[in-house]
Design a protein that fits this description.
five-stranded mixed β-sheet; 6 helices
């Protein structure tokens, strides 16, 4: 099964550090940066109230920093696809999923989530999970892949928690 930790999905234990492929040229070793499909969803903007405590901008900043430092090359960045209902329902309760999509979660659930509800939030959450699924699939195909949003591990089967709507790692493992 795929290892999914810290935004890195890698199916082979030996490749945990596979961003660098060390090749021997006689007695000299040189590091060659391997291509890494890296999925992002910061193009789905979620409007937050002024001074909201969640740093949503960190995802775009991370992508820009990886690009500026040539850690991930431009052609390796991939917009995250949206997770499907079928994907989400492998892990999450159907009534919860429908309530979130339709904007009918109870006020207590929205407080537990920590974000104001919007259709932009729905798209962003589906893209975040879709990115984790896509990175997991790419890691199984290519040996390594990345996702710049994800780790939404606080979500429960039937409710959001701590800025997490869906449990992306659980969904991608099913």
């Amino acid at each position: 099964s795929a290892l999914r930790a810290g935004g890195l999905a890698c199916h082979d234990q030996r490749r945990r550090t596979a961003f660098l492929d060390l090749r021997e040229a006689s007695h000299v070793r040189t590091a060659v940066l391997r291509p890494v499909k890296t999925f992002f969803c910061d193009h789905y903007e979620v409007p937050l109230p002024p001074k909201h405590r969640f740093p949503m901008h960190k995802y775009r900043m991370l992508r820009n920093a990886l690009r500026a430092r040539s850690v991930v090359r431009e052609g390796e960045f991939c917009p995250a696809p949206l997770a499907t209902a079928e994907d989400i329902l492998r892990v999450h309760d159907a009534d919860y999923f429908e309530a979130f999509l339709g904007g009918t979660l109870p006020a207590s659930a929205i407080r537990e989530l920590g974000f104001p509800y919007s259709q932009a939030l729905v798209r962003r959450c589906l893209a975040s999970v879709g990115g984790t699924i896509a990175a997991s699939d790419a890691a199984l195909d290519d040996g390594v892949a990345g996702v710049l949003a994800g780790g939404t591990h606080h979500a429960q089967r039937d409710r959001p928690a701590g800025y997490c709507v869906f449990h992306d790692a659980a969904v991608s493992s099913m």
